Amino acid sequence: MSETLVNFVEAINLAHKAGLQDNNKSYIIGLGVNYQNGADGTTKNLSSIYPDKVLDVPVSEAAFTGMCVGMATAGLNPIVHHGRVEFALLAMDQILTQAAKWNYMFGGDYPCKFGARLNIGRQWGNGPQHTSSYNSLFVNTPGLNVLWPSRPSEAYTFTKALHHAPSPTIMMEHRYLFQTKDSFNENNNDPLVIPQVSFYGKSSKTIILTYGDGLVEAIKTKNKINDSDIQIICINAFVRDRELHEDIIKAIESCDNLICLDTSNYQFGLMQGLIGSLAEKINLKEKIKIFSPPFIPCATSPKLVKNYYPFSPDVINYLNEINVTKERASDYLFDDINLPANIDFSENVPSKIIKSTLTE
Known about the structure:
alpha/beta, Rossmann fold, 2 domains, seven-stranded mixed β-sheet, 15 strands, globular
């Protein structure tokens, strides 16, 4: 089958269409998902094809998320959509206390096939109340699979997996990636087999460790530096436990410089958890540098946002200072900082992907 070049939104839409077609027990439920251009276009036109399976709901996140948890315990595969993570906070009891714990409370033979899509805001205008991720809240919850698509091909794979997920699974979608492009095959492979970690480039003395929308700046950094090899390790998912794959540990153990690129607050967050796990096995003290937002909310003002997120020029100029490269980078302009990323990932293919399988 020929490859398709699509953006992040289109990839999710195609995966939803395939998932609804493949599984007659699957539903998409959320505010405005049945609109013509619903859920920012990710459910565009789906309600005209599946009017009984793409369902709008009243503005009560706790109620309709709880309804989806009930459906999931009855053998259905509902996917609830929350346009921002902050909206989903109103349904934390349903997600963390009920869905994530359900199968465990009933001896492991009463699955809850719950799926959720949670959007993380970033670009211009989202401000303090629509830019949080709360990654650590979900990663620290046993019984919950957590997915971070970093490119459209992964968004397609993960969304399709949600339609068949045998256990509670949430996809954390960075809206900053919605205009990025990628090419991939719409194949019929096992929808429960998903990428867990992606490696870009061969083994190197300098590694950038990141996840989700951090891949954009990591790729820009790698492509800009021509006089030194850079390897990127991108975390895609945690399935079941939170153990790090041995290939991650081996690669980082052998490197001289570890760049931790975090687009969320680092303190007590996802990446600090990863670094803590690595520090149990590796001495990181002499090799690690953290790039992350300061521990304050993200501002709405473009002038303040300029100094909030870590960007590729920051990383390149640091690597110049420690003599990894002779390259220097100029500061980003307004569009680079405040508008959604616009990168074609099809030109940057992982050199290795470690996969995992969603199970009960």
